[in-house]
Each structure stands twice: as structure tokens, then as C-alpha cells.
Amino acid sequence: MSLAARWPLPDRHDVRDELLAAWDRPGYHDLQHLAEVLERLDELADAGAGFDAATVALAAWFHDAVYDGADDDEERSARWAERVLAPPLAAEVARLVRMTLEHQPDDDDADGCALSDADLGILAATRERYDAYVAGVRADFAHVSDADFRAGRRAVLEDLAARPRLFRTRQAHDLWDAPARANLERELAGLRG
């Protein structure tokens, strides 16, 4: 199924097309990332995770719509959703987008947990895809020196690896925790070495 066909609203194709154009860029935060997040949301729903599929899918479309490797990418993406969507949907989508900055949704936030898990699901990818993801993230931060990138990347990965639960839904934990932790440890060993 094409990405355009995965648009969760019956209308607003103008917004969909603007988002597709925004996601069409080099680096990790590209159209493939959007497609993979949407596929992982389907996988979570198929495994029994309960969340508002349409709202969370819409938040996925916006969550990295603005991505320059800047500190306010999520905020600018959330504001985009607030500008073009009608309330109360706009507020919920923007809230979910902002949550992806830290990936720390409350345990009772089913929508936030699903989006966070689908976004972090890349950590459980096959070795080949994981390595391509790491290269894509480096490309996203090409403006950062190698030493600063390594230090920042190491800090992010150490924070993730130290979490008692990397994934918030039971389904994502069961599906992806073990391979994600193996990939994190492999990458961290390279950054430490």
C-alpha cells in the first residue's frame, strides 16, 4: 500500500501531500521512517495493543515532519499539526508529537505508548537495517562534528539502555525488547571502543 493511501483522514489531502513532500528528504527521518512507524503501529494493533489507531497514525505523520536535527524539531512539527488540523484532534496530535521528544509517555497513555514504541521500534531492526538507520541518523546530523556526534549519540543510547522498560506496551516489549537491547549494546560497544 502506498504511503498516500495510508493517510488516516478521509479528506485534507492537501495536508497529506505537504507532509509527503516534507518527509521526502535524505537521512533517517525520511519517507521510509514514516512507512516503518506506520507498519509498526499496525503490528502493535495486530498483536492486541489498544490505542486510537487513526489519531496515533496521524501523529506519526506529523511526528518528524520538521526535521533539521535541531532542538525544536518536535515543537515545530507539533505546531504544524496545530495550524492545519481542527480541534480537538489538533491538540491531541500535537501532544503526541511533543511526547516523541523524550519518549516517556505515562503508563496509562495508550496512544502515547503506542506511538513511542512504534517510533523506537527501529532499535529492534535486523543488523543491516539497524546499521543503515545509524548511518541515516549520522547524515541527519552532518552539521555536527564527529566527536560531538559520538558523545551525543552515546548519551542517548546509554539513556535508552538504562531504562527498565524500553518499550511501554506489553506487545512491543514482547516483540522488540531483546533485539533492540542487543543492537543498543553493539552500537554502544563501538562508541566506547
Task: Please tell me about this protein's structure.
The protein has 193 residues and is mainly α. It has one domain (4-192): Hypothetical protein af1432 (Orthogonal Bundle). The protein has 9 helices and no strands. α8 (146-162) runs antiparallel to α9 (170-192). It is globular, with a radius of gyration of 16 Å.
What is the strand content?
Answer: under 5%
The helix count comes to 9
Q: What structural class do helix, strand and pairing data support?
A: mainly alpha
Overall pLDDT score: 97
Our Rg estimate from Cα atoms comes to 16 Å
Alpha-carbon distance between the two ends: 42 Å
- At CATH level 3, the topology is Hypothetical protein af1432
Overall 3D shape: globular
Number of strands: 0
CATH class: Mainly Alpha
CATH superfamily: Hypothetical protein af1432
* Domain unit count: 1
The SSE string, one letter per element, is HHHHHHHHH
Could you name the key traits of this structure?
65% helix; 0% strand; 193 residues; Hypothetical protein af1432; mainly alpha
Please outline what is shown here.
With 193 residues, this protein is mostly helical. The protein has helices spanning 13-23, 31-46, 53-63, 73-84, 89-99, 110-120, 127-140, 146-162, 170-192. It has one domain: Hypothetical protein af1432.
Note the topology.
Blueprint: H1 13-23, H2 31-46, H3 53-63, H4 73-84, H5 89-99, H6 110-120, H7 127-140, H8 146-162, H9 170-192
